[in-house]
Specification:
237 residues, Nucleoside Triphosphate Pyrophosphohydrolase, 11 strands, 21% helix, 26% strand, globular
């Protein structure tokens, strides 16, 4: 792990007094890496952020986003596996761990129109979950593995405490995207080596390099990257 893992976020501008602004509190966020291993070389689903975004414009990323209050109460078909819950539990309560997993599933549907879920009868829902539940689907949290955690450094004007999850593409209800669900400029599958050649945030590149290691050893501890006392720290959960 190199010291430039967050290099593309850049420093904030100093205030008029010349002092650096007080760091903002990181917001919980979750990301889902979907792996397709139906061919000789595994491929991963990625999307390119709109160029007009003020945070990582034009970068290729995994689908994901901030946790929502509704994620703490959303229904699910299967729960997190005990090993995944245990790893998440080192940095979050059981309720927050499950909400992070649900956020990753919900955001994947919102951004790329894919359902990591089990088919059920359509049901009513509120807020961000309304459209998901209307598809006749409930999240399949047992399909998730916990790959990594990364906390945006204090120099960033937008900070996230992001958990990276991974799931096999064959756990999706379908590889066909739902209509009118895309929030990214472009969405495509890339073999892992090809994905490393894209314009990526440094943390995304770090997580991409973690994927082959995780595929080879599913029991591998999840790296956790954060800053403390002005220095980048990497531990394993």
């Amino acid at each position: 792990m190199t010291d430039d893992a967050f290099e593309d976020l850049g420093p904030t501008s100093p205030s008029k007094s010349g002092a650096r602004p007080r760091p903002v509190k990181p917001r919980d966020a979750a990301t889902l890496i979907i792996i397709n291993r139906t061919t000789a070389n595994p491929s991963v689903l990625m999307g390119r952020r709109h160029g007009g975004h003020n945070f990582m414009p034009g970068k290729w990323v995994f689908p994901g986003g901030r946790i929502d209050r509704s994620d703490f109460h959303a229904p699910y078909a299967t729960d997190l596996r005990p090993d995944v819950a245990a790893r998440l539990g080192k940095t979050a309560t059981p309720a927050r761990s499950r909400a992070l997993a649900l956020a990753a599933v919900r955001e994947t549907f919102e951004e790329v129109g894919l359902l990591l879920a089990r088919p059920v009868s359509p049901r009513p829902g509120n807020g961000p979950w309304r459209e998901f539940l209307s598809q006749g689907a409930l999240p399949d949290l047992a399909a998730l593995d916990f790959v990594a955690r990364a906390v945006t450094p204090p120099v960033s004007p937008k900070r996230f405490d992001a958990r990276f999850f991974m799931a096999e593409a064959d756990r999706l209800i379908s590889l066909e995207r739902q209509a009118d669900c895309g929030e990214l400029d472009e969405i495509a599958w890339f073999e892992l080596e090809a994905a490393l050649g894209l314009d990526l945030p440094s943390v995304t590149r770090f997580v991409l390099r973690e994927i082959p290691l995780r595929l080879a050893d599913p029991t591998r501890p999840a790296p956790s990257l954060r800053f403390a006392r002005g220095r980048q720290q990497l531990i394993h959960l």
